[in-house]
Specification:
Elements (H helix, E strand, L loop, with lengths): L1 H18 L4 E16 L4 E16 L4 E19 L7 E23 L3 E13 L4 E2 L8 E2 L11 H5 L4 E13 L3 E10 L20 E15 L1
Antiparallel strand pairs: 1-2, 1-10, 2-3, 3-4, 3-7, 4-5, 4-6, 5-8, 8-9, 9-10
């Protein structure tokens, strides 16, 4: 994972050298997320997470710009499970770390006293890794409703010994203040089904193994100038 992150950051810096057209070198971003999983084989409750990363702005015209980003996101989700199949159900907290690579087109449609610029955003995003891990390791032998999966069954990448790649499409809005500060609010809709890589896929009869995943993200960006 560290090698992948290093390679992506190196690419981002090279991207800046080739395409930088204004005095903003890159931006540092930090924010929060709320990840939502809707599946037939698990019951979940969404939880807030956090993210941080780098942003490279590339002006395309007076009003359009491309935002190329590399973000690390830590998502949290509660799965409904139980200690034994006859026990009362309870919330079991999992975490999942992802590398997200959005390619976002930002359209600046309105200026307010030249200090605030309002924009609309859209674009695809690649998501690397899909590995849910228990927060409380003492619950590794619990059963997950409704078909009694084990917590380790949700560690797709570990069980499959390969990195998952999923695709999202984002839409949102932005506010930029004096070109140095930006706030983004986005909704990411999953275009691929991460459960297609579920290691338990072939062991379940008469159950559709699929998932619809999405998340909301609020981020703040500070652009460093040359």
């Amino acid at each position: 994972m560290n090698k992948i992150i290093f390679s992506l950051i190196t690419f981002l810096l090279s991207f800046n050298t080739l395409f930088a057209q204004d005095n903003r070198i890159f931006g540092i971003t930090i924010g929060g997320s709320n990840y939502i999983t809707d599946s037939d084989v698990v019951f979940t409750k969404s939880q807030p997470g956090f993210s941080f990363g780098l942003v490279e702005p590339v002006p395309l015209s007076k009003r359009f710009e491309l935002l190329f980003e590399i973000n690390y996101t830590q998502n949290y989700t509660k799965f409904i499970g139980r200690q034994t199949k006859l026990s009362e159900p309870e919330d079991i907290k999992f975490k999942m770390g992802n590398i997200n690579i959005p390619f976002i087109v930002n359209y600046n449609f309105s200026n307010l006293k030249k200090d605030f610029i309002f924009g609309a955003q859209a674009g695809p995003s690649l998501c690397l890794f899909h590995n849910y891990n228990l927060v409380d390791s003492s619950k590794e032998d619990y059963f997950l409703d409704p078909i009694y999966l084990k917590p380790k069954d949700l560690a797709f990448d570990t069980e499959n010994e390969r990195t998952s790649v999923n695709v999202f499409f984002a839409v949102g809005a932005s506010v930029t203040y004096k070109e140095n500060f930006m706030c983004n609010l986005r909704y990411y809709k999953g275009l691929t089904d991460p459960y297609r890589n579920a290691p338990f896929y072939s062991t379940i009869d008469n159950v559709t193994v699929s998932s619809k995943e999405s998340y909301f993200a609020l981020s703040f960006v500070y652009f460093i100038e040359d």
